[in-house]
Amino acid sequence: MASLNSVITADPDVLRNATRSASQSFEIMRAREEALSHLLVAFITSGLFFMLFPGTVLGVWNLLQISGRASVVATSPAWMQAHGHAQVFGWVGSFILGIGFYSIPKLRGGIKSSFSAAWACWAMWTFGVAVRWIANVYLWEWRFLLPLSALLELSAFLIFFRAVSQHKPEDPSKSGLVPWVTVVISAAVGLLLVLSTNLVGCFYVSLRGATPAFPHVFDQRFLGLMAWGFLVPFVWGFSAKWMPVFLGLKSLRPRLLLAAVAVNVSALALTIGGVGIIGSCTFVLGVALVIAALRMFEPSVKEAKTRGVHSSFPYFVRIAYAWLSIAALLGVAAVRWDLSGGIWGASRHALTVGFVAVMILCVGQRILPAFAGMRLLWSTKLMFVSLALLNLGCVLRVSCEAIAYQGYAEWPWKILPASGFIELTGLTIFALNLAGTFVFQPVPTNNSIRSEKLFASDLQKTSGRDNSRDSATSGQNQQFIWVLQTRFSGCIYINDTDFADSSGRAPFVSMVEAPHLRQLHYRTQFWRLDTSRNRSVLVERQVSPAPFVIVKVLLQDPAQTSFIEYDHMIQTLSPN
């Protein structure tokens, strides 16, 4: 039986049909990417709205009331809980759901019901968070709206969970889960527990409470579950996935990472069970283990991937993990010495703002522009300013809150409002930078790249195959390569030494792969022959979608071309 290669070479009609089919496939893939980008932008936009107005602005107002009267009892507990709910669920939750839907391969199939379910999830989640904020702040029909908001949020998460559960691994032959996936799954379970607990609390308050605020003891345990059971593991999981590459760190220590998660779960159980001092010390142990697992404070062995973002990106990531350590240590101090909630408040602020928010500002401005249509970040300087202001405000808040609340001095009460305004300014700049990226940064289109077919002929010449046997297929090859070129803004040659797969070995041959929006295969930043942006090809996988197998069939080429003169080179090829 003749091989597939010989059949395609001998029959131009087969080649023409394959080329047409590939072109149609690329158009479908591009339409899916655009639809997913619109879905992601919707989640991110609603998240930014909740971060600024119901979240941070209300938080600053609460802080002004507390500081003006020098007492934490000066503000409504319902308002404080509305601020926290908008920040955690409205901001962080919307970001997680949006990025999660964007990354689900099932949605790539273009099934209308899948996109309908994703948009239904966005509507239910957004409406649920908004209703909760209105019920807590305005007290309008709160006995009905409070449980309604909790039901909407839980239902939205179950839609997301169902979509995720239908995802099958790309390589079913591999047993077990990648460590970072295990950590993210534990965080997803934590979010489910948080939403379920929130539902129980809302029904209890609506039936027996005098206000929409949770009782103090219940609220403290609920906050612990939210912070250490949901937020922290999510950041750990995605740090394990991205930070070794982004920061150029040594390989992850997977056993230590899983041990850190187990210790964190144990600490959470002890804390909720009322064994505060042992639980808080166990949190410190878990933080130490995850820092060692990620090698966060060890010297980088490779250059950090900072092109397209500010060069301070690696430093702020490490500062975020320093805040995590401070939060855990303050938790131990709070169990021993807290009298008025000041040390507990400082610990929570170091965790939620110093660690979680700083990581979101770092990673969000690193990946979201690429996810939202392969854009470039609008301003790297604004990225630095937002991170610097957020950290400055966090330093002032954490250092002054414990002193003021504990009654050690009066002067910190005057600094606390300034810390709130500084943090608000930093978060506003972050939101403006992402908004500028979505609005003012162009999305690559077919018109952004010239359609000369010299690219295909150059590829033919470099392979040394310009004989008469190829004349029947060269025109079709040119058309197919041009389709690759225009649909995905350039083909990227990938070497065999940059990123090894999970087995610890790199691919044996160089491959041709199209830039993949969800896997950070960026377009070139400046010129057509510039190196691939951020040198960030293959953050996750080695070979991309199935249509690219056709490249090998149509070109009839081995992968060794003169464009890969050395194994350590990555080069983007475009028409010139």
Describe the largest sheet.
Answer: 3 strands, antiparallel
- Give the ordered list of helices and strands: HHHHHHHHHHHHHHHEEHE
Helix-residue proportion: 55-70%
Shape: globular
Mean pLDDT: 75
* Neighbour order of strands in the largest sheet: 2-1-3
Instruction: Name the poorly predicted regions.
Output: 1-10, 446-576
What does this structure look like?
- By secondary structure, the chain is mainly α.
- It has a domain at 450-573.
- It is 67% helix and 2% strand.
- It has 16 helices and three strands.
- It has helices at 4-10, 12-69, 77-103, 112-138, 142-165, 179-208, 216-246, 254-272, 276-294, 313-337, 342-371, 380-405, 412-440, 454-462, 471-488, 549-555; strands spanning 491-494, 511-513, 571-573.
- The chain has a three-stranded antiparallel β-sheet.
- It starts with a helix and ends with a strand.
- The relative contact order is 0.09.
- The model is unreliable at 1-10 and 446-576 (pLDDT under 50).
Keywords for this structure?
single chain; 576 residues; mainly alpha; three-stranded antiparallel beta sheet; 3 strands; globular; disordered C terminus
